[in-house]
Amino acid sequence: MNEPLKDDVYKRRGISLLWDIANVKEFCDAKKGMSLRSFLLHYANQWKQTEKAVSKSKALLVAGLEGCIDSMNPQDAEEFLRDIVYPAIISFQNKFAGGGANASLILWVGDNSRIEYQTISSKLYYQCSLYKQKIPLGQCLFRGAESDLLEITTKQDGKENVIGLYQQRIS
């Protein structure tokens, strides 16, 4: 992983996994957020009326990723992420967000303790709760570009905290 991201560019462009809800509330009204199911419906409708769900800072907050993953066996979860969620992310980036520069997609994850980045292999994994197996989250969502991910950090009480992961653009 590269140097930590210390500015707030993730609020305006790119793709992020974010687990600090207090930070999200600073720039994105939770009422403006949507479920993963709604996100996929917006994708199916070619992003019509999605502008209404985007915050003032141009962030689209999507919740429910981990609930979907946890409700499936690991193999089905991988296929779902790779074959359904990834194309929706790419479409959002290219067709709604102007290549990723005009809006950000924030996938809110409530429990970051199940996200593991292995530095040696530059791989991002998710620990499924029911099956106790890891799935290659980074491979499914970022198509193996995990080594380009940046940790999103904030300072609280003089200490740096990692609150998420950021990817400027995926292909």
Q: How would you portray this structure in words?
A:
This protein has 171 residues and is α/β, with parallel strands linked by helices. It has five helices and nine strands; from the N terminus they run βαβαβααββββαββ. The chain has one domain (9-167). Strands 2-3-4-1-9-8 form a six-stranded mixed sheet, with helices on both faces. It has a three-stranded antiparallel sheet with strand order 5-6-7. The chain starts with 13 loop residues before the first strand and ends with a strand. The relative contact order is 0.23. The mean pLDDT is 89.
| Overall pLDDT level | 89
Q: Quaternary state, please?
A: single chain
Give the helix tally.
5
How many domains would you count in the coordinates?
Answer: 1
Strand order of the largest sheet: 2-3-4-1-9-8
Which geometry do the CA atoms define?
globular
Report the β-strand fraction as a percent range.
Answer: 25-35%
Helix content: 25-40%
Class per helix and strand makeup:
alpha/beta
**What is the straight-line distance between the termini?**
18 Å
Poorly predicted runs: none
Instruction: Count every beta strand, where a strand is a DSSP E run of 2 or more residues.
Output: 9
**Largest sheet data:** 6 strands, mixed
- String of helices and strands: EHEHEHHEEEEHEE
Alpha carbon gyration radius:
15 Å
